[in-house]
Amino acid sequence: MAHTVLARKWRPKKFKDLVGQNNAVTILQNIIAKQRLHHAYLLTGTRGVGKTTIARIIAKALNCLSPENNEPCGTCDNCKEIDIGRFVDVIEIDAASNTGVDNIREVLENSQYAPTSGQYKIYIIDEVHMLSKSAFNAMLKTLEEPPTHVVFILATTDPQKVPITVLSRCLQLKLRNLSAQEIEAHLANILTKEQQLFELNALEKLAIAANGSMRDALSLTDQAIAFSSSSIDLTTVQQMLGISDDSSIFTIFDAIINKNSNLIVNTCQRLSSEGANLESILEQISETLFKISIAQLSTQNTSENIQELASKISLQDCQLYFEISNLGLEQIRKSNQKYPIFTMTLLRMVAFTIGSDKEKEIVIQSNNAKTSIQTNQIDLKPKIIETTEIIIEATPITEKVIIEEKNKVTSAPQQKASDNPPWEESITSDEELVEENATSKDNEDNLPSEDKHFSSWIDFVSELDFSAIPSSIGMVMNNATQHNNIRDNEIQLNINSVYQNSINAETVDFIEKILFSTYQQDFDISFNFVEEQIKDSLKEVQKTKIEQKQIEAVNSINNDEIIQDMLNNFSAKITPNSIQVI
């Protein structure tokens, strides 16, 4: 087959190509530089984080004919033969297939012979925890005092099953799970080189689904390429992974809060008929409950939707729902009939709600949080209440109110221009203001290009049309921020180190060309890679503006006198998530 899967094609060949394992790489490079080689290494970590890959890079670094800066050159005969698995002095053993003591004895007997082509004879034993107890005992002495030309590299996903006598004889390197941000940046870099179109929000879903494994992420990306017709978009990835969008998750929570079991059953049937992965959706529900609990008991910033749910669900109910959700996950993973368990898990949240019909005031005070959640007292005396539901849709310029009462939809009659109420007059003035701003903006755009001067990076990228810019370069420009003021036509930018692989000479040249075409002036771009999150990039600024507009829209609705009269006099209510900035 001519095609090579992404996980094999883009497997790192040098230490610098590894993603997210800086601690292990630093230790190994220092060991090689100072020639303080250990006779046995134990690499631990979950699947797909690079254990076997690092073992092969160590083998190349120790046997490379012309190493460079503690890195294997990758071009000599020894490096090439190790890459294709034909180097006679690098022996890879699958402990899962060779568990017996006889297999280990054969390895130990051959270890006494000097290497044939390289400087060291390397034994890579994968999934070493699968060896039998007798096999471990047989290798103890050799593992502690091997010949000077032998290096053992053991790899395992379950170090707890490795005897302590073996652990004490090895230099242990723990490889961590990769963050979703690191995986997303690496996928964007690979797909750009593969000339494959993609959407960043689709890569974010793939990175989350990979659960810290780069190999899983690349395998899912291969699947997404095969599943999509041209570009990897969000809809395609959601269909492939069987996950739901946020609207379905919030619909489920609204049904639970309002005890609408019919809506829960209908939603579960719809998700099942669409072929959704019910286990993944239940995981999304658990994650949402975790965010709600964080919003209730800490001062961390959360989205508007999470804050709204946190104000409607009591602390006890949130903890109970989380336990019910986790119990449902445990059950759904053991059963082939997932739909009944999924549906019953959600109905169980309605059935076992704690004290939602009682007057409740919960005040939690601690060193870093104060949460107050109240529900109105329920009058148990029989009475008839006519309920009016107000659905409010807000835009930056106007608010539209639709009143639904007893399945009848009515709207306020239009008034003559002379009878316009104050809020309609303000709308007219806002529209005039928008037209004035638009005219002013057009006049600015028509200015000669030589009159434009670079002021700041955020102002520059805010005016760009990113639809004409490659996705990977747009991602870099969106997440970068200016380090200091312009000086001698030099612009220094800060960016998180996870985007380092996406920045090369072509990226810098492309950005410099855009700057020249905008300001008719040559600029030199340089990047500083930092570990902390960049808070004043275009991406973060736009996110903050959207959140602020949503808060202003909600406040304008809540402070409207007419709407308050409807709420007080007609037992009306504002439906959740009905206030949206368009």
How does this model look, in words?
The protein is α/β, with parallel strands linked by helices and 582 residues long. It is 48% helix and 13% strand. The protein is built from 23 helices and 14 strands. The chain has a 5-stranded parallel beta sheet with strand order 2-3-4-1-5, with helices on one face. Strands 10-9-8-14 form a 4-stranded mixed beta sheet. Strands 11-12-13 form a 3-stranded mixed beta sheet. Helix 14 packs antiparallel against helix 16. It is globular, with a radius of gyration of 31 Å. The protein starts with 5 loop residues before the first helix and ends in an 8-residue tail after the last strand. Mean pLDDT is 79; it is low at 355-434 and 438-450.
Protein topology:
Layout: H1 6-9, H2 22-34, E1 40-44, H3 51-63, H4 77-83, E2 90-94, H5 101-110, E3 121-126, H6 133-144, E4 150-156, H7 164-167, E5 171-174, H8 180-193, H9 200-210, H10 214-227, H11 234-241, H12 246-257, H13 261-273, H14 278-297, H15 304-312, H16 315-332, H17 338-351, E6 360-365, E7 370-375, E8 388-394, E9 399-405, E10 408-410, H18 422-445, H19 457-462, H20 471-479, E11 481-482, E12 490-496, H21 505-519, E13 524-530, H22 538-558, H23 561-569, E14 572-574
Parallel strand pairs: 1-4, 1-5, 2-3, 3-4, 8-14, 12-13
Antiparallel strand pairs: 6-7, 8-9, 9-10, 11-12
Task: Give a quick precis of the structure.
With 582 residues, the protein is an alpha/beta fold. It is 48% helix and 13% strand.
How far apart, in Å, are the first and last alpha carbons? 50 Å
Query: How many helix segments?
Result: 23
Structural class by helix and strand composition: alpha/beta
Rough outline = globular
β-sheet strand percentage: 5-15%
Main sheet, how many strands, which sense, barrel?
5 strands, parallel
Low-confidence stretches: 355-434, 438-450
Radius of gyration of CA atoms, rounded to a whole number: 31 Å
Q: Strand order of the main beta sheet, please? A: 2-3-4-1-5
> What level of helicity do the residues show?
40-55%
